[in-house]
Specification:
The chain is globular and about 30 Å long. The protein has helices at residues 14-18, 40-49, 65-73, 86-96, and strands at residues 29-32, 56-60, 78-81. The chain has four helices and three strands; from the N terminus they run αβαβαβα. Strands 1-2-3 form a three-stranded parallel β-sheet, sandwiched between helices. By secondary structure, the chain is of the alpha/beta class. Helices cover 35% and strands 13% of the residues. The chain has one domain (14-96): 3-Layer(aba) Sandwich (Rossmann fold).
């Protein structure tokens, strides 16, 4: 995201992000699906339960139709397969941040 001119914050885990105090100020979230303890999809579900739903882009090395369907049904913008094409990230960031 920095290479696209955006301020970024990195977190070691889903739990660290959820406890960061940055949920309300998050304008877009890019998350791996597979993380220790809590998956990116579980983190996204927890955020929604807490009343936060920033545009979310998931990345995964293990895509499946079920994963994509679940993530999109919960409001994610996209599920991208690793290695992620920079043009795909740029496209979804422009969608998420409403940039022409």
């Amino acid at each position: 995201m920095r290479s696209f001119g955006r301020r970024t914050s990195l977190f070691a885990s889903a739990e660290e992000f959820l406890l960061s105090g940055q949920l309300a100020s998050t304008s877009c979230l890019i998350s791996d699906v597979m993380m220790p303890r809590m998956s990116g999809v579980e983190m996204h579900e927890r955020m929604i339960a807490l009343g936060y739903a920033p545009p979310t882009i998931f990345v995964t090395a293990f895509p499946s139709a079920n994963l994509k369907a679940k993530a999109l049904a919960n409001g994610a913008l996209a599920v991208l397969e690793k290695p992620v094409d920079p043009d795909a990230i740029a496209h979804w960031l422009s969608v998420a941040l409403d940039v022409p």
